[in-house]
Amino acid sequence: MKRTGRKKSSVGFWIGFVLISLIFAVVLELSKNTLWGWGIFAAVAAAFLYARGKLKKSGYWHSWIAGVCWILFLGILALNLAVTAPPFRTVPAVDGRDGGETPVISIRQGDLTGVYTDDGEVAVYAGIPYAAPPVGDLRWREPQPAEGWSGVRACDTFGPMAMQQQSSPLYNSLTQLLGTHNYVFSLRDNYREAMSEDCLYLNIWAPVHAGSEPLPVLFFIHGGSLMTGQSSYSEYRGEDLARQGILVVNCAYRLGVFGYYANEALAAESPNGTTGNYGLLDQIAALRWVHDNIAAFGGDPDEVTIAGESAGSSSVNALCVSPLSEGLFRYAIAESSGIVAKHPYHTFRDLSDALDMGRKIQEEMDCADLSALRALDADELVKTRHQNSAMTVDGYAIVEQPYLTYEKGGNHEQALLNGFNAKEADAFVMTTKVTADNYVELLRAVGGDYADELAALVPAGSVTRDQHFIIDAGGDAKGALDHVFSAAWFTYSHHLWSAYTVAQGKPTYEYYFTKVNNGLSNYHAGELPYAYGNLWRHKGLYDSGDLALSKVMQQYWVNFVKTGDPNGDGLPLWEARRADSERLLELGAAIAMTDDPYAPLYPIFDKYMETKAK
Question: Are 234 and 214 in contact (CB under 8 A)?
């Protein structure tokens, strides 16, 4: 009996040891701990087994000693996780091995070099300062000119991301693994991306063999609800588009409380009377930098197209009406957001609301005045519980409600390419419990007194989970809510935006992205790696059909940047929007003109907006 008990004990020990070791190894990987963590883990595991063997051999491996050893083993492993946490560092401009250093480029600030992609076809210049660091006394001021430097600046890594609240590396990895399915097991990414209030840097991707003629420029603004995001994100890096004869530029800008905080005292001290739009002013400063410097990289400052996705698209909309950006771009590409409604659902707010939140943040931080607020450490300020996720009419960067500027024809874009995805709102209401009983009440958030009318048009059981709008097709209340919220939060703004530019006689092209895949699919932001040519970064998630669609979308985007028209030889015809038609181009398993599936909802939103605008 004793021998059997010892065998069971030994088997139990090995099962426990193997399970704990596997769990710890997975946590080490997902948490991006350094290689030292793996070395310490191996040494501690070996020492534990050695000690157990010695104690068993000498007869001292009793239950209480075993318990102490297990506690020490687990404690050291936990300590190891803390002491070998991934360090902060800037992200290399080129994944893997780069193709070497570029020749020196001279701009007003000084001399700099970039790096080539590994095939030598694209030069990448990353982390170029376009404005002075907005720190200290420059916190919550208009961006100031960037300082120069002596010597040659190596622009081979992206600048730090803007200050933002972050999840742990473990949580981020699990999101990639279980959510977007694009996690890659590697021992080469054991770091966290650097984050700093000193974040005003931009990046340039330029083709190497482009000839002597200056090239058109695509200037991209990242999304993230004006609260999160970074210019280093793989989904909109520009090397593949640059290979097709354009320059691609993107930038970081101030976010959250640093970018959209509003305060009467800040407006009073500003020579322009502005507050609440610092992130937008950063984007304008970056555009101005491009206008003044892009020729040195082979770009044409008079042929700039602005583009953005989500909050970046709302920012594009703001740039189209800002008097400060006039003459800095020609065309606009807008993906999945806008602020041209009479009362935008998101990314825009009344100045009074912005100032009210500003007062609450000052109270939350227990600061008596601006000096105290500016003296706060950025790591403390970023923890505010109030979300500064909206622009406002400040009288300087934005002088009136954007729709009023469009009604007057004062918007700047000469042509517009814009659109949305099939499942825009699904991820945002994923955890919302929806039943036939609470369905109408939930719709009041986007329809107010017209919620019943929305429910009559889209009954609670009318939309299947694959987002196809089919009346009485066995759908559920959750699918119906997703459909209505997608229309309100995302597609409605494009319907209005297109209508304005069509009425102005400007070339307007609208799309509807529906392609299903194993990654983000056709949810919010799912079109990004297709349009910007980054599917290749996610091996196993996309098939030949995805690659074919991406090739077409890239050509549409590039053609539009070059000419204001996405069409070209060999491409399916993308018909321009007309005043008498709401047809748009479906980008999916097939590419063809189709009707806007959300069009029946827009008249109800129009009526709701009239009540909000009063």
Answer: no
Which CATH superfamily hosts domain 98-414? Alpha/Beta hydrolase fold, catalytic domain (3.40.50.1820)
For residues 503-535, one letter each, b for 16 or more C-beta atoms within 10 angstroms of the residue's C-beta and e for the rest, the string is eeebbbbbbbbbbebebbbbbbbbbbbbbbbbb
Residue 51 pLDDT exceeds 90: no
Note whether 556 and 550 are within 8 A (CB). no
d(CA 76, CA 64): 18
- Cα–Cα distances (Å) from 99 to 93, 124, 297, 418, in that order, read 11, 10, 18, 35
Q: Which CATH superfamily is domain 420-613 in?
A: Alpha/Beta hydrolase fold, catalytic domain (3.40.50.1820)
CA 70, distance to chain mean position in Å, is 44
CA Rg value for the chain = 27
Per-residue pLDDT of 353-401, as tens digits, reads 999 999 999 999 999 999 999 999 999 999 999 999 999 999 999 999 9
Structure tokens at 309: 């996705």
Tell me what pLDDT residue 466 has: 52
Report how far residue 143's alpha carbon sits from residue 163's, in angstroms, rounded to the nearest whole number.
16
Could you tell me the pLDDT band of residue 69, with boundaries at 50, 70 and 90? confident
Question: Looking up tokens 């000839």, which residue turns up?
Answer: 211
Tokens linked to 259: 């970018």
Both tokens of residue 554?
Answer: 């890239």
Contact 162, 228 (CB under 8 A): no
Q: Where are the domains of the chain?
A: 2-83, 98-414, 420-613
Site of tokens 């304005």:
500
d(CA 444, CA 399): 30
The dihedral built from the CA positions of residue 135, 138, 141 and 142, taken in this order, carries a sign that is: negative
* 311 CB-side CA count, 13 A: 26
Q: Please, what sign has the CA dihedral across residues 49, 50, 56, 57? A: positive
Where would I find the H helices in 237-306?
239-242, 256-260, 264-269, 278-293
If you write DSSP's letter for every residue of 463-505 in order, what string do you get?
B-TT--B-TTSS-BHHHHHHHHHHIIIIIHHHHHHHHHHHHTT
DSSP secondary structure letters along 345-370: SSSB--HHHHHHHHHHHHHHTT-SSH
Those residues with Cβ within 8 angstroms of residue 62's Cβ, 6 or more apart along the chain or in another chain: none
Give the number of C-alpha atoms closer than 13 A to the C-alpha of residue 416, restricted to the C-beta side: 31
Ramachandran sector of residue 542 (left: φ over 0; alpha: ψ -120 to 50; beta: rest) = beta
- What secondary structure letter does DSSP report for 575? P
Q: Is the pTM of this model over 0.85?
A: yes
Residue with tokens 């400060």: 324
- One-letter identity of residue 248: V
Q: How many whole angstroms separate alpha carbon 582 and alpha carbon 592?
A: 14
Q: Same fold for the domain at 98-414 and the one at 420-613?
A: yes
Half-sphere exposure of 456 toward its Cβ, with a 13 Å CA cutoff? 6
SS3 289: helix
- 286: which 2 tokens? 């970056």
**Could you report the per-residue pLDDT of 327-346, keeping only the tens digit for each?**
999 999 999 999 999 999 99
